[in-house]
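Quick one, C-alpha cells below. Sequence please?
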C-alpha cells in the first residue's frame, strides 16, 4: 500500500507488508484519518494515516476479500468476499457485527451510500443491489447475464452505475431501479 500527495505527486507513506497477498480494495474513512484495505490473504485491515500503524485487523472471510467500504458514521466497516458473503465490522470494539449472504457467487464490490445504512453491492451472479445493514435487499438493479465486477453510487443515491464481464456499463435511477442507459463497448 502506498499513499501519495495528490498536489505534489510525492509518495508520502508506504505501508510495508500490509497484506501477505494481493491488495484488492482500499477505502478512506469518512474523517480521512484512516485507511481500510482488504486482500487475497482474507484480511481486512485498518491503518492510521498519520503514523502508518495498523490499528485493526479483521479476520473472518474464508476467501479473498474483494471490497471494503466505511459506513458514513465511521463506526462500521463492510467487506465483500469471494466467499459469497458481506461482513460488517465494529470499528470501535473490533468485533464482527453481522454476516450477510444472498449471493450465489463472489461478492465483488461494496460501497456505502452517504448518510445511510445502505450499501451498493455487486456479485458474480450478475446482481447489483442495495442492501441495508440488516441484510435486507432494499432495491435490485437489473443487469445482464454476466459477472458484475463493480458499481458506484452518487452520494445522494440518485444514480447507480455498474459494469462487468459483458463490457457494458449500465446507468440506473437509484431511487426507482429503472435502467436509464446502457453504454456498449
Amino acid at each position: 500500500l502506498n499513499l501519495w500527495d495528490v498536489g505534489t505527486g510525492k509518495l508520502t507513506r508506504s505501508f510495508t507488508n500490509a497484506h501477505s497477498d494481493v491488495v484488492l480494495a482500499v477505502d478512506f474513512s469518512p474523517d480521512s484519518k484512516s485507511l481500510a484495505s482488504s486482500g487475497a490473504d482474507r484480511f481486512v485491515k485498518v491503518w492510521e494515516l498519520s503514523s502508518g500503524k495498523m490499528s485493526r485487523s479483521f479476520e473472518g472471510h474464508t476467501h479473498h476479500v474483494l471490497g471494503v467500504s466505511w459506513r458514513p458514521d465511521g463506526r462500521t466497516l463492510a467487506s465483500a468476499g469471494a466467499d459469497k458473503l458481506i461482513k460488517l465490522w465494529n470499528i470501535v470494539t473490533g468485533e464482527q457485527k453481522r454476516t450477510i449472504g444472498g449471493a450465489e457467487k463472489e461478492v465483488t464490490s461494496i460501497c456505502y451510500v452517504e448518510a445511510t445504512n445502505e450499501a451498493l453491492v455487486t456479485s458474480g451472479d450478475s446482481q447489483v443491489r442495495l442492501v441495508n445493514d440488516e441484510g435486507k435487499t432494499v432495491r435490485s438493479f437489473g443487469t445482464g447475464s454476466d459477472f458484475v465486477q463493480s458499481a458506484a453510487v452518487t452520494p445522494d443515491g440518485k444514480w447507480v452505475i455498474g459494469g462487468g464481464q459483458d463490457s457494458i456499463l449500465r446507468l440506473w435511477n437509484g431511487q426507482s431501479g429503472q435502467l436509464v442507459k446502457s453504454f456498449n463497448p
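The mean pLDDT is 95. The chain is about 0% helix and 50% strand.
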